[in-house]
Fold this sequence. Notes:
- The chain contains 10 helices and no strands.
- By secondary structure, the protein is mainly α.
- Helix 2 crosses helix 10 (158-166).
- It is globular and about 55 Å long.
Amino acid sequence: MAKDYAESIEFQIDVKQFAALALIPPEDVKFAFKELKLKASPKLEKFIFYIEDTWVGRGELGKAMYTIELWNQYENALSGSQKTNNAVEATHRAFQKSLSIVHPKFSKFINLLQKEQTITENKIEQAEAGYPQKKRKRDEKNYDYIKNILENYRKDNLQAILKGLSRRVVF
Length: 171
């Protein structure tokens, strides 16, 4: 599946449409999942089983590991308060980069942790003092596109909605 994903934009869109289920109204997720499943490539069979078992459930009564209401972000996306882990990922990448090696000396690791602690404490103080958080323009633009798509949501246009959202889902 990784090879197909790396080599085919259409395959990427097909996969990302499943991720886009998190952005449509919760009451439409099972219907949309069934529609995606019907047109999915046989190469996605194991992925679809995973989605069913973990996120959507099998059939009408099938229970998933997580309820749709737990992971669905439709309301957050519409209100502009989307929840992402971009900041966490960026912090992790920056920390990894500052280590510069996989297994640093213990003293270097402790020094970097202390530096990171100081930075974090400063950010907390700034937030408590009301300073606005920095947001990347690219992320804000992407959120606006998602919001625009969802504001025009209609269940009878579901395929186009999911395809549009899939172009905005970033892994």
